[in-house]
UniProtKB/TrEMBL annotation:
CDD domains: NAT_SF
Domain N-acetyltransferase: 15-172
Protein name: GNAT family N-acetyltransferase
Alphabetized GO MF terms: protein N-terminal-serine acetyltransferase activity; protein-N-terminal-alanine acetyltransferase activity
GO cellular component, one term: cytoplasm
One Pfam family it belongs to: Acetyltransf_3
Species assigned in the record: Streptomyces daliensis
Amino acid sequence: MLTGGKVGLRARHEDDIPVLRTELYDDVVNASRAEGGPWRPLKPDTKDPRLVVDDTQQGVVAFSVVELDGGALIGTATLWGIDNHNRSAHIGLGLLPSSRGKGYGTDVVAVLCHYGFVVRGLQRLQIETLSDNAAMLGSAERNGFVREGVLRSSAWVLGEFKDEVLLGLLAQDWKPDPKG
Ligand SMILES: CC(C)(COP(=O)(O)OP(=O)(O)OC[C@H]1O[C@@H](n2cnc3c(N)ncnc32)[C@H](O)[C@@H]1OP(=O)(O)O)[C@@H](O)C(=O)NCCC(=O)NCCS
Protein backbone atom coordinates (compact mmCIF):
# COMPACT_ATOMS: atom_id res chain seq x y z
CA MET A 1 0.00 0.00 0.00
CA LEU A 2 1.14 3.54 -0.74
CA THR A 3 0.74 5.89 2.20
CA GLY A 4 0.50 9.64 2.70
CA GLY A 5 -0.06 11.59 5.89
CA LYS A 6 -3.73 10.61 6.22
CA VAL A 7 -4.59 8.19 3.42
CA GLY A 8 -3.51 4.88 1.99
CA LEU A 9 -3.85 3.85 -1.67
CA ARG A 10 -4.38 0.13 -2.06
CA ALA A 11 -5.81 -2.31 -4.60
CA ARG A 12 -9.57 -2.42 -5.27
CA HIS A 13 -11.33 -4.99 -3.08
CA GLU A 14 -14.55 -6.75 -4.07
CA ASP A 15 -16.49 -5.20 -1.20
CA ASP A 16 -15.38 -1.67 -2.17
CA ILE A 17 -17.43 -1.90 -5.34
CA PRO A 18 -21.00 -1.52 -4.00
CA VAL A 19 -19.94 1.39 -1.80
CA LEU A 20 -18.21 3.23 -4.64
CA ARG A 21 -21.09 2.52 -7.00
CA THR A 22 -23.69 3.88 -4.57
CA GLU A 23 -21.75 6.86 -3.24
CA LEU A 24 -19.96 8.03 -6.39
CA TYR A 25 -21.40 6.63 -9.60
CA ASP A 26 -25.13 6.48 -8.72
CA ASP A 27 -24.90 10.18 -7.81
CA VAL A 28 -25.89 11.79 -11.10
CA VAL A 29 -24.48 15.22 -10.28
CA ASN A 30 -21.15 13.92 -8.98
CA ALA A 31 -20.71 11.46 -11.84
CA SER A 32 -21.71 13.99 -14.49
CA ARG A 33 -19.23 16.54 -13.16
CA ALA A 34 -16.37 14.09 -12.68
CA GLU A 35 -16.59 11.69 -15.61
CA GLY A 36 -16.53 13.74 -18.81
CA GLY A 37 -19.40 11.77 -20.29
CA PRO A 38 -23.11 11.15 -19.91
CA TRP A 39 -24.33 9.53 -16.71
CA ARG A 40 -25.87 6.11 -17.11
CA PRO A 41 -27.02 3.65 -14.46
CA LEU A 42 -24.71 0.79 -13.50
CA LYS A 43 -26.10 -2.71 -12.93
CA PRO A 44 -25.36 -4.29 -9.54
CA ASP A 45 -23.04 -6.81 -11.24
CA THR A 46 -21.46 -4.23 -13.54
CA LYS A 47 -17.95 -4.81 -14.91
CA ASP A 48 -17.51 -1.09 -15.54
CA PRO A 49 -13.74 -0.44 -15.49
CA ARG A 50 -14.13 2.50 -13.10
CA LEU A 51 -15.23 -0.05 -10.50
CA VAL A 52 -13.84 -3.43 -11.55
CA VAL A 53 -10.11 -3.09 -12.09
CA ASP A 54 -8.51 -4.79 -15.09
CA ASP A 55 -4.89 -5.43 -14.12
CA THR A 56 -3.94 -6.15 -17.73
CA GLN A 57 -4.52 -2.53 -18.78
CA GLN A 58 -1.00 -1.08 -18.76
CA GLY A 59 -2.12 2.51 -19.26
CA VAL A 60 -4.24 2.77 -16.11
CA VAL A 61 -3.58 2.13 -12.42
CA ALA A 62 -6.66 2.27 -10.19
CA PHE A 63 -6.51 2.47 -6.41
CA SER A 64 -9.03 2.46 -3.62
CA VAL A 65 -8.37 5.17 -1.06
CA VAL A 66 -8.59 4.34 2.65
CA GLU A 67 -8.13 6.29 5.85
CA LEU A 68 -4.81 5.36 7.43
CA ASP A 69 -6.50 5.59 10.79
CA GLY A 70 -8.83 2.57 10.79
CA GLY A 71 -8.69 1.61 7.12
CA ALA A 72 -12.18 2.80 6.10
CA LEU A 73 -12.79 3.16 2.38
CA ILE A 74 -13.04 6.84 1.42
CA GLY A 75 -12.72 6.95 -2.37
CA THR A 76 -10.89 6.18 -5.57
CA ALA A 77 -7.68 7.42 -7.16
CA THR A 78 -6.39 6.75 -10.65
CA LEU A 79 -3.28 7.32 -12.69
CA TRP A 80 -4.51 7.07 -16.28
CA GLY A 81 -3.30 7.75 -19.80
CA ILE A 82 0.15 6.54 -18.78
CA ASP A 83 2.48 7.29 -21.68
CA ASN A 84 5.85 5.63 -21.16
CA HIS A 85 7.39 7.30 -24.22
CA ASN A 86 6.61 10.89 -23.23
CA ARG A 87 6.70 9.84 -19.56
CA SER A 88 3.43 11.52 -18.69
CA ALA A 89 0.10 10.57 -17.16
CA HIS A 90 -3.15 12.04 -15.88
CA ILE A 91 -4.51 11.99 -12.32
CA GLY A 92 -8.10 11.43 -11.25
CA LEU A 93 -9.73 11.05 -7.84
CA GLY A 94 -13.12 10.99 -6.19
CA LEU A 95 -13.92 10.90 -2.48
CA LEU A 96 -17.11 9.75 -0.78
CA PRO A 97 -19.22 12.81 0.13
CA SER A 98 -18.63 12.41 3.88
CA SER A 99 -14.85 12.44 3.35
CA ARG A 100 -14.59 15.67 1.36
CA GLY A 101 -13.20 18.95 2.66
CA LYS A 102 -10.97 17.35 5.30
CA GLY A 103 -7.64 17.49 3.49
CA TYR A 104 -7.80 13.94 2.16
CA GLY A 105 -7.92 15.06 -1.49
CA THR A 106 -4.70 17.05 -1.09
CA ASP A 107 -3.06 13.99 0.47
CA VAL A 108 -4.31 11.67 -2.30
CA VAL A 109 -2.79 13.96 -4.94
CA ALA A 110 0.49 13.91 -3.01
CA VAL A 111 0.52 10.09 -2.96
CA LEU A 112 -0.34 9.92 -6.68
CA CYS A 113 2.57 12.29 -7.36
CA HIS A 114 4.88 9.97 -5.43
CA TYR A 115 3.58 7.01 -7.42
CA GLY A 116 3.90 8.85 -10.74
CA PHE A 117 7.27 10.49 -10.25
CA VAL A 118 9.09 8.04 -7.97
CA VAL A 119 7.58 4.61 -8.59
CA ARG A 120 6.87 5.09 -12.33
CA GLY A 121 9.65 7.54 -13.21
CA LEU A 122 7.30 9.91 -15.02
CA GLN A 123 8.26 13.46 -15.96
CA ARG A 124 4.85 15.14 -16.18
CA LEU A 125 1.51 14.73 -14.44
CA GLN A 126 -1.65 16.43 -15.62
CA ILE A 127 -5.10 17.11 -14.18
CA GLU A 128 -8.21 18.36 -15.95
CA THR A 129 -11.04 19.64 -13.79
CA LEU A 130 -14.07 21.90 -14.09
CA SER A 131 -13.14 25.53 -13.47
CA ASP A 132 -15.69 25.71 -10.62
CA ASN A 133 -14.24 22.69 -8.78
CA ALA A 134 -12.49 24.68 -6.05
CA ALA A 135 -11.63 21.62 -3.97
CA MET A 136 -9.90 19.85 -6.88
CA LEU A 137 -8.07 23.00 -7.92
CA GLY A 138 -6.95 23.50 -4.31
CA SER A 139 -5.82 19.88 -3.93
CA ALA A 140 -3.76 20.17 -7.12
CA GLU A 141 -2.26 23.61 -6.48
CA ARG A 142 -1.33 22.75 -2.90
CA ASN A 143 0.86 20.00 -4.43
CA GLY A 144 2.53 22.38 -6.87
CA PHE A 145 0.38 21.89 -9.98
CA VAL A 146 0.14 25.07 -12.04
CA ARG A 147 -2.70 26.19 -14.29
CA GLU A 148 -1.56 25.82 -17.87
CA GLY A 149 -4.72 26.81 -19.63
CA VAL A 150 -8.48 26.94 -19.77
CA LEU A 151 -10.36 24.68 -22.15
CA ARG A 152 -13.32 26.93 -22.86
CA SER A 153 -16.76 25.30 -22.93
CA SER A 154 -15.13 21.87 -23.22
CA ALA A 155 -17.44 19.95 -20.89
CA TRP A 156 -21.16 19.39 -21.34
CA VAL A 157 -22.45 19.04 -17.77
CA LEU A 158 -26.14 18.65 -17.02
CA GLY A 159 -27.47 21.09 -19.55
CA GLU A 160 -24.64 23.58 -19.95
CA PHE A 161 -21.13 23.88 -21.30
CA LYS A 162 -18.49 24.46 -18.65
CA ASP A 163 -14.84 25.45 -18.83
CA GLU A 164 -12.17 23.02 -17.74
CA VAL A 165 -8.80 23.97 -16.27
CA LEU A 166 -5.70 22.08 -17.33
CA LEU A 167 -3.06 21.81 -14.61
CA GLY A 168 0.40 20.29 -14.91
CA LEU A 169 3.30 19.41 -12.63
CA LEU A 170 6.81 18.48 -13.76
CA ALA A 171 9.03 16.14 -11.76
CA GLN A 172 11.70 18.79 -11.18
CA ASP A 173 9.14 21.20 -9.70
CA TRP A 174 7.57 18.67 -7.35
CA LYS A 175 8.17 19.12 -3.63
CA PRO A 176 7.17 15.88 -1.90
CA ASP A 177 5.57 17.50 1.18
CA PRO A 178 2.67 19.76 0.07
CA LYS A 179 2.45 21.33 3.52
CA GLY A 180 6.19 22.10 3.45
C1 LIG B 1 -12.14 17.14 -5.49
C2 LIG B 1 -11.85 16.33 -4.20
C3 LIG B 1 -11.08 15.06 -4.56
C4 LIG B 1 -10.95 17.24 -3.31
O1 LIG B 1 -10.69 16.57 -2.10
P1 LIG B 1 -11.03 17.22 -0.69
O2 LIG B 1 -10.55 16.29 0.34
O3 LIG B 1 -12.47 17.61 -0.67
O4 LIG B 1 -10.13 18.55 -0.72
P2 LIG B 1 -9.24 19.11 0.49
O5 LIG B 1 -10.00 19.03 1.75
O6 LIG B 1 -7.90 18.46 0.42
O7 LIG B 1 -9.14 20.65 0.09
C5 LIG B 1 -8.26 21.14 -0.91
C6 LIG B 1 -8.33 22.66 -0.92
O8 LIG B 1 -9.60 23.05 -1.46
C7 LIG B 1 -10.32 23.80 -0.48
N1 LIG B 1 -11.69 23.31 -0.52
C8 LIG B 1 -12.15 22.10 -0.15
N2 LIG B 1 -13.47 22.00 -0.36
C9 LIG B 1 -13.86 23.19 -0.86
C10 LIG B 1 -15.10 23.72 -1.28
N3 LIG B 1 -16.22 22.99 -1.23
N4 LIG B 1 -15.12 25.01 -1.73
C11 LIG B 1 -14.00 25.76 -1.78
N5 LIG B 1 -12.78 25.30 -1.41
C12 LIG B 1 -12.72 24.03 -0.95
C13 LIG B 1 -9.66 23.50 0.85
O9 LIG B 1 -9.81 24.57 1.76
C14 LIG B 1 -8.24 23.30 0.45
O10 LIG B 1 -7.60 24.56 0.26
P3 LIG B 1 -6.20 24.90 0.96
O11 LIG B 1 -5.19 23.92 0.40
O12 LIG B 1 -5.94 26.30 0.58
O13 LIG B 1 -6.42 24.67 2.43
C15 LIG B 1 -13.16 15.98 -3.45
O14 LIG B 1 -13.80 17.14 -3.01
C16 LIG B 1 -14.12 15.15 -4.30
O15 LIG B 1 -14.00 13.95 -4.35
N6 LIG B 1 -15.09 15.82 -4.97
C17 LIG B 1 -16.05 15.14 -5.83
C18 LIG B 1 -15.41 14.43 -7.02
C19 LIG B 1 -14.52 15.35 -7.84
O16 LIG B 1 -14.81 16.51 -8.05
N7 LIG B 1 -13.40 14.78 -8.30
C20 LIG B 1 -12.45 15.48 -9.15
C21 LIG B 1 -12.86 15.40 -10.57
S1 LIG B 1 -11.61 16.16 -11.62
